[in-house]
Amino acid sequence: MLDALFKPRAVAIVGASTKELSIGNVIIKNLQTYGYRGRIYPINPTAPDVRGLKAYKTLDEIPGEVDVAHIIIPAKLVPQAIEDCGRKGVKAVVINSAGFSEMGEEGARLQEAFLANARKHGVRVFGPNCQGIINTDPALKAYCNFTFTYPEPGSVSVVALSGGVGALIMQGLFDLGVGMRMYASNGNACDVSIPEILRYWGDDPGCKAIVLYTEGFSDPKEFLETAREVTARKPILAMKAGRTEQGAKAASSHTGSLAGVDIATELIFEKTGILSFQDEEEMVRAAMAFATQPIPAGNRVGIITNTGGPAVIATDVLVAAGLEVPALSETSIARLKATQLPQAALGNPVDVVATAGGDQFRAAVDALQEEEGVDSIFINFVTAPFTDTHEVARQIVAASRNGNKPVVCNFMTDLTQERYRVTMGILKEGGIPFYATPTAAARALAALARYGRLRKRDIGRPETFPGTDAAKARSIVDRARKAGRSVLSAAEVYPILEAYGIPVAGWKVVQSAAEAVAAAGSIGYPVVVKVDSEAIDHKSDRGGVAVNLKDAAAVRSAVEEMQARLGAFGSLRFFVQKFLPGGRELILGARAERELGHLVMFGLGGIYVEVLKDVVFKIAPVTGVEAREMLASIKTRALLDGVRGGKGVDKEGIASLIQRLSRLLTDLPMIREMDVNPVLAFEHAVIAVDGRIRI
Ligand code: ADP
Ligand code: MG
């Protein structure tokens, strides 16, 4: 339990300083200024008092119990300080000092040393190299942190590894007038981890929504489990930095180079139902809506506007985000007709026109609250100088409380005028989230709807596939590993695929032209001949694939020709395979991701895969729902349905293949990378014709 950390009754400051603007002084000042209700004990070996508070030479001298101790002393003194804290019975320490694992080996050793002392005494460690925590609860007002924003109490809690981004988010919420519940910025996070904090806040009834900023996960599996539990109860809005391709290491196989840098974090967010954001401002603005509004039951938006253009912009943004702006029912239109000004346009958007006053806004919001065809309400409110804008704001507030649909407002005005600041205050007091542009407001509403969809999305459990032969697949891999080989040959890859029920085209490995002709006879013409050598990665690049061979003469000459040309690669094997013309070329692949398991890839395959990069990823195990989502999320998905009278392909067959591949990866964790490219998809069949596995 993190109660001692987040609800401390007494805080000691080890390294309290009389010097203004030093961290050991600022933290005390923050506690005092913010109105901390507990006791503050500065520890300073020489000063009799700090900031008007009696100072103690050591922790031992403190008369009462201490829940949290800030540690603000040089790194090399920290292990001893933690030992002292343990003896004193301090429950948690916030180590603000830096100079630990972030500074290399010696720092890491110090971190290990103080952690050992902390564990011995059962002291929880927050940080090191961190800001600290804030609890805005009016009964406590714990500001154990050295930042500068003094948040209003509220229902949004913020956790960020980076103190800089944490402060940015906190200030962003403050600027929007959004209250905060708790704040945590835990730096190196050597003990108290983000999953633990999420779980704690998941259980906190005062927290309605969580905002998370991270730069990666030390234990992605733990994060996955915890986040999935928490998002089922309350929204987590998250952002991850470092999403450009710049750092992406060039991997040799398709799958390796197609996965961008740290694609895994985004996939973790998706799998757990976390709302992911690309932009910190957008995330903070969305938090404003989550703090006050219910989650819409669906995607349908009713728009009320007193000016035309902004409603058009809002509609574009909403529709692009997957929302709908449907026509209103006859009943609603009739109601509006009875209540709106004669010039009003009665559709969706409802244009109440610029002269509309409180009555018209009230009636319009009421009508949309009642309208069964919409799930949320978007208002464009430009403060026309000839209207009573206070009354409009009051009526919007009153009407929003009259129903259970979320209301989001684009409030366009001049805030240098006192009059409109009062109007804004009415909206704010009334809990209406409002934004300065139609785009910002529409995006915030879209985030509410996105969470509504995520909460309804149940990815289910991975299916089991009877008849798979895991033992056979494993023995093939083990044999290759014992032989010291990391790349499996075609003769190994195909049986592994077959063991998991992944259909492969009829095949045979041969050594000579004569054997190839015999194999072709038994497989049945037409056939394909491919060179089969570990040294050759992409066979067709080397002229190592000959397709549509219709007779023995063609097979013989294809083999002899490859022998002549590719002889430099040593003695060659060949691979004879049934030729299957006319299929859609798809790719299935996988890549092992440290600490997380495998990422499974699906997309448009064939030889253009690197050019088009139309692939999507999921974290294994992939469920049926997720496999179908993969099919639906590639850019060229329309090709799977058939274009211009062409036949569609067996999508259920592909979904099953993706899941079988996922199962194979779960059973064979030693696989580092694999590609099945292409899988040929036909109307009633899906068949693999090329595979590569690296262990
Ligand atoms: P590589 O990827 O090593 O170049 P492939 O075995 O994938 O070699 O073959 C290259 C291309 O040849 C495939 O993308 C596909 O277009 C075609 N091809 C290969 N095998 C077959 C087959 N059995 N039936 C039809 N086309 C095939
Ligand atoms: Mg290939």
Supply the key terms.
695 residues; Rossmann fold; six-stranded mixed beta sheet; 24 helices; flat; binds adenosine-5'-diphosphate; binds magnesium ion
Secondary structure blueprint with pairings:
Layout: H1 3-6, E1 10-14, H2 23-34, E2 39-43, E3 49-50, E4 53-54, E5 68-71, H3 78-88, E6 92-95, H4 105-121, E7 124-126, E8 132-135, E9 142-144, E10 153-160, H5 163-175, E11 180-185, H6 194-202, E12 209-214, H7 220-231, E13 236-240, H8 254-258, H9 263-272, E14 275-277, H10 280-292, E15 301-305, H11 308-320, H12 330-339, E16 345-346, E17 350-351, H13 358-370, E18 376-382, H14 389-401, E19 407-412, H15 418-429, E20 434-435, H16 438-456, H17 470-482, H18 490-499, E21 507-510, H19 513-523, E22 527-532, E23 545-549, H20 552-566, E24 573-578, E25 584-593, E26 597-604, H21 609-612, E27 615-619, H22 624-633, H23 637-641, H24 651-667, E28 673-681, E29 686-688, E30 691-694
Parallel strand pairs: 1-2, 1-5, 5-6, 6-7, 10-11, 10-12, 12-13, 13-14, 15-17, 15-18, 18-19, 19-20
Antiparallel strand pairs: 3-4, 8-9, 8-11, 16-17, 21-24, 22-23, 22-24, 25-26, 25-28, 26-27, 28-29, 28-30
The protein binds adenosine-5'-diphosphate and magnesium ion (MG).
In CATH's first tier, which class of the largest domain applies? Answer: Alpha Beta
Query: How are the strands of the biggest sheet laid out side by side?
Result: 9-8-11-10-12-13-14
Q: Given the structure, what is the number of helices?
A: 24
* Overall pLDDT score: 92
Walk me through the structure:
This protein is an alpha/beta fold and 695 residues long. It has five domains: 1-146, Rossmann fold; 148-292, Succinyl-CoA synthetase domains (Rossmann fold), CATH 3.40.50.261; 294-456, Succinyl-CoA synthetase domains (Rossmann fold), CATH 3.40.50.261; 506-579, ATP-grasp fold, A domain (Dna Ligase, domain 1), CATH 3.30.1490; 584-694, ATP-grasp fold, B domain (D-amino Acid Aminotransferase, Chain A, domain 1), CATH 3.30.470. Helix content is 39%, strand content 21%. It has 24 helices and 30 strands. A seven-stranded mixed beta sheet has the order 9-8-11-10-12-13-14, sandwiched between helices. A six-stranded mixed beta sheet has the order 16-17-15-18-19-20, with helices on both faces. A hairpin with a 2-residue loop joins strand 3 and strand 4. Helix 11 (308-320) runs parallel beside helix 16. Adenosine-5'-diphosphate is lined by residues 505, 528, 530, 538-540, 545, 547, 577-581, 585, 606-607, 677-678, 689-690. Magnesium ion (MG) is lined by residues 677-678, 690.
